[in-house]
């Protein structure tokens, strides 16, 4: 029995392992810079890794720089070499001592001693010959330490020196010998142990150490991913994604949530340190996902790099490279110019104007190459500043903006990259922080991307969607709005790349999937937009209960749904507090009066310092129609049934006659005017007699004539005084601050402002400090497909205008 259980367990484990596709996690130097950082990394590995995954590490932060410095000191034979060697060793020794138990500490310190003795020998005797060997210690120490810490604290782990399997055929181009490397890696892998592999270093075909260039561990990670067919590569770093500019230098940089492969490649080429230029090369089949995340705050979703569509295309970034050389020569024209660009992997060039832009260390090589063509060359110090985005060179407006932004700089030329993803300005001055910030501002100032989710695809939701394409192309504030979700009570369609707005409903019919609350919330929590707006056109109380969660996630809400705004005082206050805390906006212009700007009017009065003392009027289109039409010619019940058949009432007319809807609307307006009250504080006259309230709908409709005597009596009494009857909402506040609120039938003079409406119209009357004797009146249709949908559009424009000007926050080292 026991045995069979164990066997079953083993197969289950194996199945589990087989099911788990390999993930590669690369930790950069900045994530391994101190004992505290390493502890954080260990936690990430505990939570995110399984035993057959691969961890790739860079040298502990600053170590490669220190090793380079040692190397240069050795070449120059400076006296400080000994001190620097001592410093580098003590930093390692300190990490070891802080992180390991004493027996392991001792072992690693002994190994460190041996390594440093070897390092010293190379530095003193043959630094040039051993440059790569010297640099390799950084990754070696880092991998050894991390794997020991993991073995002590998390799971069995072993360290792999990538030089034991990774073979580079061509040092210069860093071309991997895939077949040999793959076979050797599989030979090295140990079952049920987590591999920690050195990044940055490899062997060449002569069996010598070589490096993949600065920041090369990113490339190591994707090479290894391709060797083992990994599903995911995560580059864990000290910033929570790739930003529209270096966030250390440009505080207003925005996170690029989704970066198309081509753009990422171009950013790497143009010096973005988060991505080594070759990082994407091994992932040509695009079946491996690549993303950048922060080891300082793993909960934040970072930047995903992949094959993305229309959304990501519009994200622009700005990057620069200083310390370059502009090389001008006749030989850089025509075919020869093209050859030169390729030969030197020039940053950019123009074979008509006859120049290439290269790195300073290439000057000698370029001069030699030109010597063989017997032409003169002029070298000028230069820099490039580029704006990068998907197929950006084809955007005339971006070209124009970029040019304008650089009008005060010494721009030698502007060049489009052959891959079409960058426009580069060649500057004969260094790119300063100020210039970078200015150009970044000009290129990205109105580029906050706003995701739009529409919940409720009934009559109004449909109309809202029908109007959406025209609004998006017409209203500048909606330029960066992307419809990304359509939700009904049963199904949902989400697409991070945007749902084609012209076919929204048909796509929904075709592709929507059943969804539950937790799936919905999980999607909303992980959306890749700067801002997300949920438009709630559902009539559902259930859906309104999600607002609290929306607000906690910083999601904005446009509610046509009255439930949340008229919920209990405690709930309402808690919603407002949650929204305020996470800076979520909550608009609900259409909860009362459909598209009529009553909520805006109230807000404006408050903003202008006014005091509202009274709000009254006819708030129900249905009750407006019924009482404007009811003159005694037809019995009340007949009129009500007419209204029902025309769709003027709810399917159960008692919902209108109960006055509850009007009561909720009055509560919403009174709250909007700054008063604290609840539904219970608003007296409500239910026009349905008790006896009819509990009947089924058909029974109620059959017994509707029982309503008639009451209404004819009311009407006749009113008529006798040259008056009429209307269903009125009234809220007022006395000078002493006492609130009075009620909704019910009132007898009004035939001349009253509320007595002469076009049937179905709403009327709102506000008395305030500014509008006392002569009140402010807003009247017009208070229901209907077009006016309600357009009221929601008005809210959307307002929200987007506010959001477009918001600054995003950079998460650098887990700090806002
Ligand atoms: P790692 O040590 O993880 O390899 P790097 O130091 O090489 O990380 O790269 C991360 C750093 O790159 C960040 O600290 C950030 O300041 C800088 N950086 C420069 N440009 C960008 C950018 N556009 N987006 C994000 N980070 C950038
Ligand atoms: N340690 C190497 C460097 O500092 C490689 C890397 O970090 O990716 O460049
Ligand atoms: Mg790096």
From TrEMBL:
GO terms for molecular function: aspartate kinase activity; homoserine dehydrogenase activity. Pfam families: AA_kinase (PF00696), Homoserine_dh (PF00742), NAD_binding_3 (PF03447). Residues 22-294 form the Aspartate/glutamate/uridylate kinase domain. It catalyses: L-aspartate + ATP = 4-phospho-L-aspartate + ADP; L-homoserine + NAD(+) = L-aspartate 4-semialdehyde + NADH + H(+); L-homoserine + NADP(+) = L-aspartate 4-semialdehyde + NADPH + H(+). Its cofactor is a metal cation. In the N-terminal section; belongs to the aspartokinase family. This is Bifunctional aspartokinase/homoserine dehydrogenase. It comes from Thalassotalea castellviae. The gene is metL.
């Amino acid at each position: 029995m026991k045995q069979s259980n164990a066997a079953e367990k083993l197969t289950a484990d194996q199945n589990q392992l087989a099911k788990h596709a390999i993930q590669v996690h690369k930790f950069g130097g900045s994530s391994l810079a101190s004992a505290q950082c390493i502890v954080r990394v260990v936690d990430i590995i505990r939570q995110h890794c399984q035993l057959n995954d691969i961890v790739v590490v860079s040298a502990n932060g600053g170590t490669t720089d220190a090793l380079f410095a040692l190397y240069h000191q050795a070449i120059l034979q400076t006296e400080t070499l000994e001190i620097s060697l001592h410093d580098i060793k003590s930093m390692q020794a300190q990490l070891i001592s802080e992180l390991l138990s004493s027996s392991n500490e001792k072992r690693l310190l002994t190994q460190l001693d041996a390594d440093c003795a070897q390092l010293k020998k190379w530095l003193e005797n043959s630094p040039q010959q051993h440059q790569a060997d010297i640099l390799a210690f950084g990754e070696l120490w880092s991998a050894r330490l991390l794997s020991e810490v993991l073995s002590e604290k998390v799971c069995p782990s072993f360290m792999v020196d990538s030089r034991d399997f990774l073979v580079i055929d061509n040092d210069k181009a860093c071309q991997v010998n895939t077949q040999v490397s793959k076979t050797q890696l599989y030979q090295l892998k140990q079952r049920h142990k987590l591999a920690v592999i050195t990044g940055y270093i490899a062997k060449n075909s002569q069996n010598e150490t070589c490096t993949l260039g600065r920041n090369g561990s990113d490339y190591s990670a994707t090479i290894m991913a391709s060797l083992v067919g990994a599903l995911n590569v995560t580059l864990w770093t000290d910033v929570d994604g790739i930003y529209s500019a270096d966030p250390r230098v440009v505080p207003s940089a925005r996170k690029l949530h989704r970066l198309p492969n081509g753009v990422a490649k171009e950013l790497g080429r143009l010096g973005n340190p988060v991505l080594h230029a070759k990082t994407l090369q091994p992932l040509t089949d695009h079946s491996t996902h690549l993303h950048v995340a922060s080891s300082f705050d793993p909960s934040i979703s970072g930047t995903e790099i992949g094959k993305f569509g229309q959304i990501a295309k519009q994200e622009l970034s700005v990057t620069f490279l200083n310390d370059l050389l502009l090389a001008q020569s006749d030989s850089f024209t025509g075919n020869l110019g093209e050859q030169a660009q390729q030969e030197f992997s020039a940053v950019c060039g123009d074979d008509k104007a006859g120049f290439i832009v290269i790195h300073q260390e290439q000057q000698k090589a370029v001069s030699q190459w030109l010597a063989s063509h017997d032409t003169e060359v002029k070298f000028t110090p230069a820099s490039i500043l580029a704006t990068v985005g998907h197929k950006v060179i084809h955007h005339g407006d971006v070209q124009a903006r970029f040019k304008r932004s650089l009008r005060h700089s010494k721009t030698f030329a502007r060049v489009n990259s052959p891959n079409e993803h960058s426009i580069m300005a060649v500057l004969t001055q260094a790119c300063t922080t100020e210039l970078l910030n200015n150009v970044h501002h000009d290129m990205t100032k109105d580029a906050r991307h706003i995701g739009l989710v529409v919940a409720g695809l009934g009559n109004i939701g449909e109309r809202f969607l029908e109007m959406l394409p025209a609004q998006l192309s017409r209203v500048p504030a909606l330029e960066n709005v992307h419809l990304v979700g359509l939700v009904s009570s049963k199904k949902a369609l989400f697409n991070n790349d945007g749902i084609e707005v012209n076919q929204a409903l048909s796509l929904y019919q075709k592709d929507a999937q059943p969804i539950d609350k937790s799936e919905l919330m999980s999607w909303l929590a992980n959306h890749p937009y700067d801002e997300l707006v949920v438009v709630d056109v559902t009539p559902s109380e259930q859906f309104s209960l999600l607002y609290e969660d929306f607000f906690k996630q910083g999601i904005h809400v446009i509610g046509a749904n009255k439930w949340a705004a008229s919920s209990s005082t405690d709930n309402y206050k808690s919603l407002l507090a949650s929204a305020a805390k996470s800076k979520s906006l909550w608009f609900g212009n259409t909860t009362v009066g459909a598209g009529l700007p009553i909520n805006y009017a109230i807000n404006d009065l408050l903003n202008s310092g006014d005091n509202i003392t009274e709000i009254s009027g006819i708030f129900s289109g249905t009750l407006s129609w019924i009482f404007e039409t009811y003159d005694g010619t037809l019995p009340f019940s007949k009129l009500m049934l007419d209204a029902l058949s025309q769709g003027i009432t709810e399917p159960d007319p008692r919902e209108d006659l109960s006055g509850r809807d009007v009561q909720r609307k009055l509560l919403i307006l009174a709250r909007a005017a700054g008063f604290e009250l609840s539904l219970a504080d608003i007296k409500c006259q239910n026009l349905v007699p008790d006896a009819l309230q509990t009947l089924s709908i058909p029974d109620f409709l059959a017994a509707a004539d029982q309503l008639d005597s009451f209404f004819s009596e009311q009407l006749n009494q009113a008529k006798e005084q040259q008056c009429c009857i209307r269903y009125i909402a009234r809220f007022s506040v006395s000078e002493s601050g006492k609130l009075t609120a009620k909704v019910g039938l009132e007898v009004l003079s035939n001349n009253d402002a509320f007595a002469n409406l076009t049937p179905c119209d709403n009327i709102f009357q506000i008395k305030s400090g500014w509008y006392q004797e002569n009140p402010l009146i807003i009247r017009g249709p208070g229901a209907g497909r077009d006016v309600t949908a357009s009221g929601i559009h008005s809210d959307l424009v307002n929200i987007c205008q506010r959001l477009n000007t918001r600054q995003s926050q950079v998460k650098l080292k887990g700090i806002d």
